[in-house]
Amino acid sequence: MCRLECFVLLSIPAAPLPGAIPSQCVWIPFITLRRVTSCYVSGQADKSPRAEWTNLWRFYHTLRGDIHLVNLRAHQKYGPVVRTGPNNLDLDLPALVKTVYSADGRFRKTEFYPPASTVVNGRVAYNLFSLRDPIEHARQKRPVAKHYSLAGTLSLQPHVDDTIRLLCRSLEERYVGADEFGEGFDLGEWVKMYAWDVIGQITFSKHFGYLSTGKDFDGHLCMSDMGADYLSSVSQIPWLDRILDKNPIFPIGGATALLGPTMRRLEDRYAGRDDRDPDQAAAQPDFLDRFLEVQRAQPDVVDRQRVLSYLSINMLAGADTTAITIKAVLYYALRTDGVWGKLVAACGDAGLEPGEIPSFAQSRAVPYLEAVVREAMRVHPGVAMVLPRCVPDGGLELPDGKVVPPGTSVGMNPFVLGRNRTVWGPDADDYKPERWLRADGETEEAFTARLAVMNAADLTFGAGSRVCLGKHLGLLQAYKVVATLAIFYDLELVEPEKECIAKMQIKSTRTNLTDQQWQYETKVVHAGLDNSRHGECTVPIYNSASFKFPTSASAEDAFRAVPDEQRWVYSRFGNPTNDAFEKRMAALEDGNDAVSLASGAATTLTVAMSLAGAGDNVIVSNFTHGGTFHQFKIITQRMGIETRFCDTNDLPQVRSLVDNRTKFIFTETIGNPKFSIADLEPLAAIAHDNHIPLVVDATFTAAGYFCQPARWGADIILHSATKWIGGHGTTLGGVAIETGRSDWQANGDRFPQLQDLYKILGNRAYMQMLKWDFMRDTGACLAPASAQQLCVGLETLPLRCERQAGNAAALARWLSTHPRVAWVRYLGLPDHPYHDLARKYLTRGFGTVLTFGLRGGEAEALALIDALDLVTNTPNVGDRKTIVGHHWSTTHAQCSEAEMENMGVYADLLRLSVGIEHIDDIKRDFERAFERTAPAPAPAPVNGKGDRCVGKVDGN
User: Fold this and answer.
1) How much is the mean pLDDT over the chain?
2) Sequential DSSP letters for 333-350
3) pLDDT tens digits, one per residue of 628-638
4) Can you list the alpha helix ranges (DSSP code H) found in 493-563?
5) Is the pLDDT of residue 955 over 60?
6) Residue 805 pLDDT level (bands cut at 50, 70, 90)
7) How many CB atoms lie within 10 A of CB 499?
8) Is the four-CA dihedral 46, 48, 53, 55 of positive or negative sign?
């Protein structure tokens, strides 16, 4: 076991607001004589000076960083309504949250917000935080809102994962020793450097460099602290900002200086200076890509200055609050007895294993982690001061019947609201994650009602129409970073008695190469290989049909009804070689466990039979491969299972087809040969809302190389391993991977066959049933020699796929300009109807397969196949060699013409699985074939098109 240990110093500020007074600030004392009149208040918040006469005291305490504590003491002394200034009231009234922060925008923002604006080229540039006009705010938010939605945020996970890996690698390189304690360090600073680097990565596809250098090398982090001091304090007296930061002659303070790197990167992108790989940039667009796309689409709404204002929100609001949240979660979870241990156990029970950064979906599937994070945000919110609004005409009626007059500034402090005993109970001051979970003996109805009250009082991300735009991005990072640290390391506080300062012990929990936090390309070589017995350097073949029992008692034990541990009995339902292949596939597809089978067809049918039976129904994409279509049309129907075919991207139709006998939804990541892209994220939401699994055939995305369906909510992932995994046309095989996130108990009546196993094995129940029931009794097992060949095939998969995808893109462009070619269908071409979805889900290119048709129709297509020399005519894909096939007369021949056309199979269609040969040789082979075959007369149009073909796409 590799023991990595060090002492870590974790420091977080005692208050969410920094306490140092920035050197740029100028102290300008003043007193205002304006007061709130005809208004019920409980008293003043501070006696020196009196709050009813001046805002100066609030300015002072904000600078000190203790305004949240001052507000809390005032409410404890005076009650739920406290005067905090001549025209300012702080409310501790959860019942009024929806009123003050209403979605209708009646309570408009006060002058507190404009100081967060920046100055660009002498003009004040308002951003979505500083804008007060709700109509203009909505107009500017609308073009980019989708990019901050949950779906838009999830597409940024690869950027976040890269930065988390960099954080772990930086810490281990500097501080972790072998079998000894390393030197102490400030983990809080590293979390802050992470937060800034990840903002750079998701915004510009480039880290700022703080994690790699291990320091604030350009002073930017220090400047951000000073900028936060300035904004939080000067916003209490907003006209000061016009004298200081917005001073056109000699500006002092403010956030404008923080935008230097942002403006440079923006100008570089406008000037075409982009050092990213074009394919990678297309597959993983950053925020700036998306903002520039919005500008091109809506130039009347979004100009250069508006793009800069969008970027400024990321820079000014994204990093500091994220860092505060993550540090708070770590601090309170480690400082409170038993919490960290429970969290680590909960992550383990959920199937999170050291070595692989958990996806957001995996992290959110750990209820105790969600409780730990939400409780930390309650007791230590990222912004802990009043978020004011202006009372509209008609005033604000308080619960006691008194009315706050129009024009008064009212608001609530998330720190104070988070300690309201009517909501949180008598232990509101305590950090207690269990309050977010259903208590023993509490009914589901009671818990739902209690949770609704807590949610309504949670102002962590604001409320109403002005909910923080970066909410999903902040939560995604908090869940993923905390989960990663929990499963990668053992952490222990050494000095928990010190308030907000904590030393912790950190050591690796990873035990072998399988669990390293490797990139995909490394996992294909090392994952699943346990060479602890003999030191072998490749997966060995255990060519044994059965395994010896040391005693009769152990034989009896092996055949127990519940296989709760790994044991080898008979290779039909388990073999060490197959186990290595299954572990490798689970690692590559972000899964919990895997089962290998004799073929891809066997895999699909076995999974279908394991989940559905006579009288049940399943929902299946009508764009599936011909063999799969036939299985669900004929084979499962004979078993009494009804198949409901539909376009699974037609979400309303999918919802309408689900009933209480529906057992799963089935689709393909890339439909074959139409190249439809399944919109996995909303499809998974429909499945999970109905407590059924989303089953995805991911064969065409090559063992997670192009797309990992688990990251988008897929529950069971299938592969024909014969294709890209084997990669050499030598081995039949299939594999099913489960993510371990399915709640098989949520609808026990739907899956009765899993209930007893689930109580004992938890998220391992389904895979164990597949192995010990279906594999044992149907015999569709993979031979150990085949499993070993598939392991070897995986080791070169990234190299093959990178070359094949590049060749496919080049060949698609070449064919689209050829005079004999009528049309080309390839996901990488902008005119493909699924191109946008492909950009969302495919992270390393657009696949290795394309289809095309000739102007002479079917006759010319078949003649061309016969004239090819290098390109092979065989019914396979994913091979290292280039393969051509004619679906109409081969793989889909058992389908009707109507069914084939619906699946995108036409008489003139030729499918190309592009290999690793030199692209010039592939082109030359086609050119010679064109020369050998005379153009056939074009067939008569069908429905206004060529011979059952789509129109020719632009070859850009």
Assistant:
1) 82
2) HHHSTTHHHHHHHHHHHT
3) 888 999 999 99
4) 520-526, 552-558
5) no
6) very high
7) 8
8) negative
Domains annotated for the chain, with CATH where assigned, are 518-553+567-795 (3.40.640.10), 798-932 (3.90.1150.10)
Rounded Cα gap, residues 766 and 736, in angstroms = 11
In the three-class reduction of DSSP (H, G, I as helix; E, B as strand; rest coil), residue 742 is classed as coil
Residue 390 annotated as part of some ligand binding site:
no
β-pairing, 617-621 vs 662-668, is parallel
From edge to edge, which strands make up the β-sheet containing 4-11?
177-178, 4-11, 501-508, 489-493
pLDDT at position 232, please?
A: 87
Burial-class residue 871 by CB neighbours within 10 Å (0-12, 13-18, 19+).
buried
The 10s digit of each residue's pLDDT in 713-755 is 999 999 999 999 999 999 999 999 998 888 787 777 888 888 8
Q: Is the peptide bond before 540 cis (omega within 30 degrees of 0)?
A: no
- CB contact set of 507 (below 8 Å; sequence gap of 6+): 3, 4, 5, 6, 489, 490
For tokens 């979390």, the residue is 191
Which of 151-160, 179-188, 647-656 is modeled with the greatest confidence?
Answer: 647-656
3-state secondary structure 612-661: CCCCCEEEEECCCCHHHHHHHHHHHHHCCCEEEEECCCCHHHHHHHCCCC
Question: Are the C-beta atoms of residues 579 and 571 closer than 8 Å to each other?
Answer: no
Q: How far apart are CA 314 and CA 866, in angstroms?
A: 57
**Locate tokens 């297509």: which residue?**
861
| Amino acid present at 238 | P
- pLDDT reading at 534 higher than 70: no
* pTM of the entire predicted model: 0.55
Angstrom distances, CA of residue 667 to CA of 31, 643, 833, 916: 68, 13, 18, 28
Distances (CA, A) of 242 to 135, 248, 249, 250: 24, 9, 11, 11
Closest residue by Cα to residue 597 from 584, 607, 588: 607
Point out which residues pair with 736 in neighbouring strands: 595, 718
